[in-house]
C-alpha cells in the first residue's frame, strides 16, 4: 500500500511539473517579438548613455579607461589583458557600429575640457529659429558638450518626412566678434527649396559656396572675412547670425570633421 501511494505521488508530481513547464513555455512563446526588441533597444540606449556620461575617457589605442588629468599628461598605466577585453566589450555593447566613431569624438571632446551639458531653453529657442535647422521637418539632439560656456558641440538628429531622411549630424556653435547681419552658406549647386521663403540675393561671394542673405549686416567686409575661412571645405553648412556662428555637417559626427572645423575657429 505504501509503495503504491509513493508511486502515485511521484507520478502526480511529475505531471504537475510537466504542466508548469509547458505553461511557462507557452507564456514565453506568447510574448510579442516587438516587446522583446523594444526592451533590447532600451537596454542598448541605457548603455550608450552610461558610456557617454562616464567621467573616464576610453583610449582606443591602448584599451585603457583614464581620467582627464591622465589624458592631458599623456601618462597612465596600461590595462591588463583582462581589463582591456572588458573595456572593449563595454565599448562594443554601448555603441552600435554607426555610432562608434561618434563615441570616439565625444571621448576626444572630454580630453579637450568639454563638459556634458544640456542646452537651455534660450539656446533651444535660438536654434529653432536658425536656418540650419529650420530646413528640416523636425529635429532634436542627443549629445551636447560645452567648453567654458562659449563653444557648443552637439549632435542634432534631423528628419525630412517626405524624403524619409533621418540623420545624426555634427554641429558647432561659437561666438564671434564684430559680426552683423544674418547669412546662410551652403555648397554651390545645392537645391535648397526649403529656404526659399527665407533667403534673398547673394550679397557676399565665397568660392565653392552660395551665401544667402537673410538680413543684411552693416559690416559686410568682416562678415565675408569670417565666412571666407570655409571656402575650401566640403560638405558644410554655415550660418552667421550677428555674433553667433553655426557650422553643421551633413553626415554623422566624427573626429575628422570636428578637427577640421576646430582649426578654422
Automatic annotation (TrEMBL):
<protein>
    <submittedName>
        <fullName>Uncharacterized protein</fullName>
    </submittedName>
</protein>
